[in-house]
UniProtKB/TrEMBL annotation:
Residues 10-74, 104-159 form the CBS domain. It comes from Maridesulfovibrio hydrothermalis AM13 = DSM 14728. InterPro entries: CBS_dom, CBS_dom_sf. Keywords: CBS domain. This is CBS domain containing protein. PROSITE patterns: CBS (PS51371).
Length: 161
């Protein structure tokens, strides 16, 4: 199983992409929209203007961006007089109008379509990622999520229990 199954057996050919010039709000919206079809999706592939890979905006980088922006807001002090709704709305507006540029993960886990599941698991572990991109001929052709590997790996195990 670990050597028989390949990255192409588990990869999702349908994945969300966004241009590197997008705002953080556009990336958040793109990820939320993709999660309607695939609730376990947690990445958006970011492409350069020429269509090549720039990196990934993951759910973690987006949450960190929101957290950084919200925590910077001086009106969000822990006092009873704080209008939390107003302060959060202002912080959210500021956060979403920022560029996606500083929130792109460029240290991307890359797989070949023929990489066996054992290699996929090793890359997830080494890179500390729950996703990896599948690349062939310099082009991203799919995304593998940890949940995809888990489903594939446990499919045969469940019948043995």
């Amino acid at each position: 199983m670990l050597l028989r199954k390949r990255a192409w057996d588990m990869m999702r050919e349908e994945f969300t992409t966004i241009d590197e010039s997008a705002s953080l709000a556009e990336a958040i919206r793109a990820l939320r929209d993709s999660m309607k079809e695939a609730p376990d999706n947690n990445v958006v592939v970011v492409k350069k203007k020429n269509g090549s890979l720039r990196g990934v905006a993951s759910i973690w980088t987006m949450l960190k961006a929101v957290e950084d922006q919200v925590l910077k807001d001086e009106d969000l002090s822990l006092t009873e007089e704080t209008d939390w709704d107003r302060a959060f709305k202002r912080a959210g507006t500021a956060c979403c109008s920022t560029s996606l540029d500083e929130h792109i993960e460029e240290d991307v886990a890359i797989l070949k379509p023929t990489d066996p599941m054992l290699v996929v698991l090793e890359i997830f572990r080494k890179k500390h990622r729950s996703w990896a991109l599948v690349q062939e001929g310099g082009k991203i052709i799919g995304v593998v999520l940890l949940s995809d590997v888990y489903r594939e790996l446990t499919r045969d195990l469940v019948t043995q229990f």
